[in-house]
């Protein structure tokens, strides 16, 4: 059996080193979708395996970040379709709640706010959630979001605005 090359290393091709410069952004996007750091790490590994296999298909090195985050988004959405992410998130929150003791009240309050945020993001419609996660966790510009999602920039902006209003509205309602 002969080994296949993993990536195209011809002139103009991005290297594995170059795509690793975005590993923090990829992780944040995966975490934004999965809401679980362990699951996000697994998703990142899947993203990088897919990216390394397909690196030769990338036409514009300037679009490397958007291309990589599109792979991350699609990988996360595929995983969500299988239904595993929500079950893992639920178990994680239950474990965290069980560990809270009286000496950890301040930490518990922060954990509650984080749980509220996670729940508010989870409640968003899928189209708003993906724009919100890619923008807030992946730090994509509006133009990069539009390119990644195949949408017009105005559509991205309106979905993001609605998502932010919904998330922060839910968070503020939780305070009163």
By secondary-structure content and strand pairing, the structural class works out as mainly alpha
Percentage of helical residues?
Answer: over 70%
Give the CATH topology.
Arc Repressor Mutant, subunit A
| Number of E strands | 0
Mean pLDDT: 79
At the first level of CATH, the class is Mainly Alpha
Give the biggest beta sheet.
none
Query: Count of helical segments?
Result: 9
| Shape type | globular
Q: What are the segments in which pLDDT stays under 50 over at least 5 consecutive residues?
A: 1-12
Based on the coordinates given, report the CATH architecture. Answer: Orthogonal Bundle
The Cα radius of gyration reads 18 Å
Tally of distinct domains: 1
Strand content: under 5%
Query: What order do the helices and strands follow?
Result: HHHHHHHHH
Give me the CATH superfamily. Winged helix-like DNA-binding domain superfamily/Winged helix DNA-binding domain
Cα distance, first to last residue? 65 Å
């Amino acid at each position: 059996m002969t080994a296949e090359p993993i990536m195209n290393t011809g002139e103009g091709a991005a290297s594995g080193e170059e795509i690793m410069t975005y590993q923090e952004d990829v992780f944040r996007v995966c975490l934004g979708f999965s809401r679980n750091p362990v699951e996000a790490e697994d998703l990142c590994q899947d993203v990088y395996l897919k990216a390394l296999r397909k690196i030769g298909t990338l036409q514009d090195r300037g679009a490397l970040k958007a291309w990589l985050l599109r792979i991350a988004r699609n990988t996360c959405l595929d995983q969500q379709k299988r239904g595993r992410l929500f079950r893992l998130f639920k178990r994680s929150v239950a474990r965290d709640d069980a560990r809270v003791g009286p000496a950890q009240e301040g930490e518990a309050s922060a954990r509650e706010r984080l749980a509220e945020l996670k729940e508010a993001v989870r409640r968003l419609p899928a189209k708003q959630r993906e724009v919100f996660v890619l923008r807030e966790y992946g730090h994509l510009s509006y133009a990069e979001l539009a390119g990644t999602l195949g949408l017009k920039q105005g559509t991205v902006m309106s979905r993001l605005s609605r998502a932010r209003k919904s998330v922060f509205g839910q968070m503020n309602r939780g305070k009163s």
